[in-house]
Amino acid sequence: MKIEIYSPTIRRKEMDAVLTAMVEDQIGPGERSRLLIQTAKEHLHFDYALALRSPATALYLALKALDVKDGDGVLVSALSPRYYAQVFADLRLTPLYCDVSFSSPCMSRETIEKAITAKPAGTEPRCIVLHHTLGFVPDAASIADLGFPVIEDISQSYCPLPVEPDKAATPPAEGQADTHSLVHGVFAILGLEERDMLTSGGGALLCAMNRKDGSALRGYSNIPPEYCLPDINAALAVVQFREAARNMERRREIAQAYTQASLRTKHKRFVSIDGVEYNHYAFPLVLETGMKDVTAYARKKEIIVESAFEQSLAGAGISDSVLCPASYSLSLRTVLFPLYPRLPSPDAQRVSRLIMTLP
Fold it and tell me: According to the CATH classification, is domain 244-356 in 3.90.1150.10?
């Protein structure tokens, strides 16, 4: 039987929550969206958030809240999602593409500084959009020290942390930021799309991480309901938050087996920054052989694998391959293997054997 690359982790609890929302009088934005925001706040400790219909809307509003102007530069990784380019075009911003290293799919302070040095004359950077690519967490604290406002996209890197009831219930002191330990930006975007770490079937949370920046988002609190996340989606996302720790533990078990298998190959893995546990959003390998050879070999074993960065700015040919050579190279050589909580153990063993015997 064929093993697909991806399967949404939807169990009975999620289905019951959605069915309950469907039989109520209101399935549009309402009480369940507010419950989602409160549930997320217990884990992310932000000051204020909007529940929106798409990550693209969240990015658009975050940039607007920073008061960007026509022609302003936005520093962004070449391995960020390709929809970023459309948002930048809609706001008439100039993307300044940053490269990554071969050991990490995220941009760093060093690659950002190189992009600033190489920027076109007359274009000034105004902010940074920092994507946590494939779930790997960049050194956001060091990047924030550059002095630019940072929007962090944690859609793939969300990692359940223990909830501290006293902390969640007690608001921070005046002027004090009460933030998730891995978020150092002004705003955080938590996408809820089909392949994000948590899913509502579509949508996103746009979070302001402290009170000062929360006031900027409150200006959008009365946006039309057509921009807001419907309750039927929010109901699914609430359960996803509550089941996140269980799902991550299963991801960890599968990834441990894959890692052991990969040690017997010549292909390379990305490295997490010191002190940060990887959330096992995916299992990428940087191939030493051609992508076609590996995908064809996997197909013979009835296992679907795919290019990790086909839907990235580099993979879509939008960013400059000359300015971002590592990103371009990784977009051609990085492959993902099936890794999701619902993957049965026998199928995970089949994938492990595939990894161990890759050409």
Answer: yes
Give the pLDDT confidence score for residue 177 in this predicted structure. Answer: 35
Tokens of 152: 């962090």
| pLDDT beneath 50: ranges in the chain | 163-180
Predicted local confidence at residue 21, as pLDDT = 66
The residues that bridge with 75 in the sheet, in sequence order, are: 96, 128
Check if the beta carbon of residue 206 is closer than 8 Å to that of residue 290. no
Write the pLDDT tens digit of every residue in 211-233.
989 999 999 989 999 999 999 89
In which residue are the tokens 């009835």 written? 302
Q: Burial, 297: exposed, middle or buried (Cβ in 10 Å; 0-12, 13-18, 19+)?
A: middle
> Which one is the CATH code of 12-242: 3.40.640.10, 3.40.50.12280, 1.10.3720.10, 3.30.450.40?
3.40.640.10
pLDDT of residue 182: 63
In this predicted structure, what is the pLDDT of residue 174? 39
Q: Distance (Å, rounded) from C-alpha 125 to C-alpha 59?
A: 17
pLDDT at 23: 63
Residues 6+ apart with CB under 8 A from 285: 262, 265, 267, 268, 269, 334, 335, 337, 355, 358
Sequence spans of domains, the chain:
12-242, 244-356
Q: What is the DSSP letter of 135?
A: G
| pLDDT tens-digit map of 241-265 | 989 999 999 999 999 999 999 999 9
End-to-end CA distance of the chain: 22
CA 161 – CA 262 distance, rounded (Å):
28
Tell me, what's the pLDDT at 179?
39
b/e sequence 93-116, b meaning 16+ C-beta within 10 Å: bbbbbbbbbeebbbbbbebbebbb
DSSP string covering 215-245 = HHHHTTTT--GGGBPPHHHHHHHHHHHHTHH
